[in-house]
Write a structure and sequence with these properties.
alpha/beta; globular; Aldolase_TIM; Tryptophan synthase alpha chain; RibuloseP-bd_barrel; amino-acid biosynthesis
C-alpha cells in the first residue's frame, strides 16, 4: 500500500478525517518553502500537496497565480521541486507528498523520466489538473509503473454518466472540487457537500478529500467529517503572502504564521 493509502487507513482507524495542505514550492523562496514544508507534519498536516509553479495555472485563482509568479521569479523549476521533495523526504519517510500542477512542465521534462524521478525523490501521488481521463494514457501508464497514485478531480458538474469513468482512472484518493470555478474564490455550502459526497461514495471505495473553497477551521472540520479529508490551500497562501515585505521577501515570522494557521486547522479537523 502506498503512503497515501496507509495514511488514510490509519486515520480511518482513528475515526477522523485528514488535513491536506497545499502550498506552492519555492514560494517565496526555496529556503522558506522547504522550512514550511518540513514543519507541516508537526503542525498537524496529514498529507502535503506541493504546487509545481507554472506560468498558466488555469484552475487557480489570483492568490495561487501570484504564488506561482513569486516562485518562478526566484528560479523554481520542476527539477528544483523534485530536489525540494527529496530533501524533505530525507527527514520524513511517512508523510505523503502529492505534486499538484499542470502537464506542460511534465511533458517538457519527459513523462517517463519525470515519473521515475518523482518516485525516486519521494513523491507519492500526482494531480495533473489539465489531463482529463480521456487523455489518461499520456501519463497514467508511466505513473502506475513508477508506483505513483494519479488523483483525479471530481466537480459538482461531473454527472452520473461521467463519474464512473473519472473514478476508474483514479487511485490514492478522490479530490472533490466543491465549487464550480477556480481556487480560493468562494466556498461551498454544507448542504451541497452533504448531497455530493454520498453520490460519489456510491461509485468508489477510495477516500474523498474536499478542496477548492475550504478556508476556515470550521469549514475544514465540517469537510473532514462529511468526507475523508479537507484540502486547504489558498487560505495558507494568503497568510504567507500577507507576511511578506514590500519586495515580496519572507520576513522572520513568515513560516511561523503559516504553521500557526495549520495548527488551528488541524485542531478543527481532529475535533480538539
Amino acid at each position: 500500500m502506498s503512503r497515501i493509502g496507509t495514511k488514510f487507513a490509519a486515520l480511518k482507524a482513528e475515526g477522523r478525517g485528514a488535513l491536506v495542505t497545499y502550498l506552492q514550492a519555492f514560494d517565496p523562496d526555496r529556503e522558506t518553502s522547504l522550512g514550511i514544508i518540513r514543519g507541516l507534519p508537526g503542525a498537524g498536516a496529514d498529507l502535503i500537496e506541493v504546487g509545481v509553479p507554472f506560468t498558466d495555472p488555469m484552475a487557480d485563482g489570483p492568490a495561487i497565480q501570484r504564488a506561482a509568479q513569486r516562485a518562478l521569479k526566484v528560479g523554481a523549476t520542476l527539477p528544483g521541486v523534485l530536489a525540494l521533495v527529496r530533501e524533505f523526504r530525507a527527514g520524513d519517510d511517512a508523510t505523503p507528498i502529492i505534486l499538484m500542477g499542470y502537464y506542460n512542465p511534465i511533458l517538457a521534462y519527459g513523462v517517463d523520466r519525470f515519473c521515475v524521478d518523482a518516485a525516486a525523490a519521494g513523491v507519492d501521488g500526482l494531480i495533473v489538473v489539465d489531463v482529463p481521463p480521456e487523455e489518461a494514457d499520456e501519463i497514467e501508464p508511466q505513473a502506475k509503473a513508477a508506483g505513483l497514485d494519479l488523483i483525479r478531480l471530481v466537480a459538482p458538474t461531473t454527472d452520473e454518466a461521467r463519474l464512473p469513468r473519472v473514478l476508474a482512472a483514479t487511485s490514492g484518493f478522490v479530490y472533490y472540487v466543491s465549487i464550480t470555478g477556480i481556487t480560493g474564490t468562494r466556498s461551498a455550502t454544507a448542504a451541497s457537500l452533504e448531497e455530493a459526497i454520498p453520490r460519489i461514495r456510491r461509485h468508489t471505495d477510495l477516500p474523498i478529500a474536499i478542496g477548492f473553497g475550504i478556508r476556515t477551521p470550521q469549514q475544514a472540520g465540517e469537510a473532514a467529517r462529511l468526507a475523508d479529508g479537507a484540502v486547504v490551500g489558498t487560505a495558507l497562501v494568503d497568510t504567507l503572502a500577507a507576511s511578506l515585505d514590500e519586495e515580496g521577501r519572507a520576513r522572520p515570522e513568515t513560516a511561523g504564521l503559516v504553521l500557526e494557521q495549520v495548527r488551528a486547522l488541524a485542531a478543527a479537523v481532529r475535533g480538539t
